[in-house]
Structure formats: C-alpha cells, structure tokens
Amino acid sequence: MNTGKHGAKIWTGKSDLVPFPLSPCKHLSKKTMITLLDYGAGNVRSVINAIERLGETVKLVNSGADIDRAERLVFPGVGNFGALMRTLREKDLRDPLIRYLHSGKPFFGICVALQALFESSEEAPEEPGLGILPGRVQRFTTSLAIPHIGWNGLKAHQASPLFHGLQGNEKFYFVHSFHVQPATQDDILTTTDYGYEFVSAIQKGNMVATQFHPEKSGRAGLKLLENFLAGDREAARPVGCPQTTVLAKRIIACLDVRANDRGDLVVTKGDQYDVREEGSVRNLGKPVTLAGEYYEQGADEITFLNITAFRDFPLQDMPMLEVLQQTSKNVFVPLTIGGGIRDFTDRDGRFYSALEVASEYFRSGADKVSIGSDAVLIVEEVMQTGKATGLSSIEQIARVYGNQAVVISIDPRRVYVASTDAVKHKVIETVTPGPNGEKYCWYQCTIKGGREGREVDAITLAQVCEQLGAGEILLNCIDRDGTNSGFDLELINAVRSAVTIPVIASSGAGNAEHFREVFTQTRAEAALAAGIFHRKEVPISAVKKHLCTTVEIRPV
Ligand code: 1PR
After folding, report:
1. How many Å lie between the centroid of ligand 1 and the Cα of residue 273?
2. 267: β partners
3. What pairs with residue 66 in β-bridges?
4. 343-382 pLDDT per residue, tens
5. 72 within 8 A of 32, measured Cβ to Cβ
6. What are the two backbone dihedrals, phi and then psi, of residue 542, each rounded to the nearest 5 degrees?
7. What is the pTM of this model?
8. How far is the CA of 31 from the centre of ligand 1 (A)?
9. How many CB atoms lie within 10 A of CB 489?
10. Does 307 sit in the ligand 1 pocket, CB within 6 Å?
11. What distance in angstroms lies between residue 477's CA and the mean position of ligand 1's atoms?
C-alpha cells in the first residue's frame, strides 16, 4: 500500500493468503481505475479489498480534483449523516461530488452515501443533504430492534445490470437505524421489509446506491459489485425475489485470541474462561486461517476477542491489527474486534483515547468494536453520579462511527439468592435452583476476562449501555462457556426483554439443536459459538442445515 501524504493513495497490495475461488472481474469492457471517496470514517478497507479481489485497482480521493477526474466513483458511507455532510463540506468535496453525480458517470453509493443523495435527514436536520434526489431520510419507526442489523432480502422494482447472475433470493448485510424516504417512486431499485417496507436501493441512470453493504455480503455482494465494476452487464430482473423479505438470524463464529507461552498469537478456548490445559494455553489454530474457513462454511459474522488486552495495550499489540488486515482481504462478512478498547496512558505518559484505539481497528478492517471491561466501569460511574459525561468510550465511538459500530461484550456469572429482595440487583426466578435450593439468581458482571466480579448486574449494564449509545449486546455467560450444555436461555430472555438493541446469545452451544432452541425460545437476533466450531464438532453449514426449516437464516 502506498500511503504517501501527498498525491492520491493507491492500494496495490495483494493478499498473501490462498484466494477463494472467486473469479476476478476480467470482463471489464474497458480497464478503468476505480475512484473511492474515503472521507475518513469507518471501514473503507473492506470496500477496497472487495474491489481488489475483483481484479481492479483503487485510487483514493484526496481532493475535489480527484472527483472531477474520476471515471467510476464508489462512495462508502458509514456513521452519522451529519458528520458525513460536514466532512464533505469542510474538505471541499461537496460541490465536486454534486458535479460528478450530475455528470451521468457511473456511481455506487453505500449505506449513508445512499442517504446523502437526498435532501435532508432526521439524524442531523441542521445539515442539508446533497439534494440529488427528492426526499428525506428518517429513523425506523418499528418495535423491532434498532439498528436493523443483519442479512435481509431484496424485492426488485426495476431491472438493473447489478442483478446480472443473481437469483433474487440472496440476502445482503444491512446495518442502519435510518432509511431513505424518496418523494417519488421513479428511482426505487429495491425495497426490503423490516417492520414495514423501506427503500433499500435506488437507481437513476448510471447512479446506484444501496442501503446494504455489498462488500460485507459474501459472494452475493461481490457479484453485485462486480456487475457495477464491469459496466457492460445487461439489465436483468431477478425472478426469485420473495414477496416479503425476512431478516435472518445470524450465526457468528468467535475467535478468542491471545499469545501462547511461546509468544505465538493463537486462537484459544476456555472452559468457563479458563484457557489453560495442563498448564499451557490451548492452541486451536491460527486466527486468519480459521476466520477464512468459517467464512467459507457460511458464518454470517466473525468476532475476534483479544482476551488478554485488559493487561496489554492493543496498539502495542500490533499482531491483532495485522490479523484484521489479513482477514479482511479474504473474508467479506462483518468483522468485530474486542479487547482493550479503553483510554490508555503508556509508560512515556502518552495518552491514547478509546476512540483512537477503535479508529485503528476500523482502519484495519473492523466493522464493529466490542467493549467489555470498560463498559462495566462506565456504567458504575454513571450509576454513582447519575449522569453520563459524554466522554466515555461508548459515547465517543458511537458519536463518530455510529451506534451500530459499538458492541458491548458482557461477561456475567450467575449468583444465586434466596429471594428477589436479597440484593439490590435485578433478580430473576430460575428453573435450575442453586446449590442450596435457591430459586432466584442475578447475573453479576465481571471485568478482566471474568477475573473480577463487580456490583452491577447484566440487565442494568445492557440498559445503561443502550442509553449511552451502544448498538448491540454480545451476551456471554461464564457458567456456560465451553460446557457444550446449551445457551443460558433465562439470561438471554432477561436481557433481551430489557433492551431494544439486538442481542447476540453466546456461550454453551454444544450441538445444532442448541441454536434452534435459542432462536425459538428467546428473541436473540444472533447466536455465537466458538468451541464446537474450533474442535470441528459441528460445521457452521450443518448448523444452518438444521435450522433452515424452522428459523430464517442466510443460506450458505
Ligand atoms: O474487557 O474490553 O478488554 O474485552 C475482553 C474480551 O475478551 C471480552 O469480550 C471478554 O468476553 C473476552 N474474554 C476475556 N477473557 C476470556 C476468556 O475466555 N478467558 N473470552 C474471554 C470470552 C467468551 C466468548 C466465547 C463464548 C462461546 N469468551 O468469547 O467465545 O463463550 O464459547 P463456546 O461456544 O465455546 O461456549 P475487554
């Protein structure tokens, strides 16, 4: 990668991993440099990686002149509508972009870049949009979990070259709380259902824009992107579009990563968080290789947890950044990274904010960051003082990268009590009584990988984090971790019913039926597992095969 400060940056790097059997885009009618508008927020690396995988070279926009010279422009937008519009204005990119959009040259906008084409957004009423299309952007009004996160389908309203080779029953990855509301029907390319029908892509002449992320939508997404890059596809209308689209339940593969005693970075796995066996750290494989395998098997997301980052500083732990960079070259589904996301002062007194740490992860290919220990400390402070500072890692990262980019990883442990008023915490009645016949329990949050219990319960933690701006809860369970005994459905129901954001059920999966159980007996939006995948007991494809008749999933 040439990242010189002056002149456009050109990515020429090639993956050093064995490529997946996806044909590079050899059929471009005319070799055209793809210009990519990176305004400095979020994960553009994945878009670059996807375009490079398709055999193209990417040139980054450094100035308005680069937009004027562009022949084929891709604009990935993430985060906040207001922040995007402000940055375009401050960097003098707004007018060149409007000129480009009026020129009729090919344009592909992704996510907030679709929203930017309209006149205004409820998310930032003070910032006008580009006004290329009539209409506005509004927040979802549904009782379903917001953000709308995950794989959903498309209903085609027009023929399009983008659909060449697609059946219509594919699912694409969405992550957003707002959607466009065009003033006319003319430019609607697709709609999707989530509580109600909303516009998920537009097409006007050579301008297309999608609310979903093709670069994160596996093979179907790459196909769609390839069709855009090729520029010579016949317009097609897929025949297999559903009448109503349904958000799929997600299957997530989790890789707990740490250095072993020899200093090698390995994927490990604990039993109730104890990752040592006969004194040594369990080694279940290499992070990049395993992530690639899980993508191939049909994982809907990959999560990396740097499990010892509470004692090391992740920006000095560069291998994790390298793991992300390498993985994102080959894995085209969302990547979450957790571990050590907090403010930090190094030995020389240099202060790094949690936002800086997160930014480094986003630049390296992460789509979401997960915050564990720091979230507990933040919630403790909010509960003590009765107010949020606006400066916590959760608030700062959500403000810049959007709520959907902030996952809270909770590590709770069951504490049995004799009655509901025995403690000040949120207590639930349980069907599995405690050692002394206790009928109740609460879920104590821990920090530092389960090493330290704190005076906050998991339900309260989830609620306060949602108020602070978190977009998703990764709900582990120390009692079930590595036991193969199934998810803790009581914990999941208690937390899911207390928040409106999506919940990822984690810990305890031992067979495919456990996934069906968690999806039919709780409202969890996703289920995460580690051990059964690492030990090759049940491949992800087998889990999906087991689910496909009873639970909506993304087909492999
Ligand atoms: O506290 O912000 O530095 O983040 C540290 C992160 O590392 C947290 O998300 C925490 O959950 C995780 N972590 C810390 N120590 C461990 C450990 O195992 N010793 N792993 C750990 C958490 C739980 C899941 C696991 C599921 C599924 N592991 O990641 O993958 O329980 O397992 P299973 O399917 O085998 O049952 P911070």
Report:
1. 7
2. 257
3. none
4. 998 888 899 999 999 999 998 999 999 999 999 999 999 9
5. yes
6. -70, -35
7. 0.92
8. 46
9. 17
10. yes
11. 9
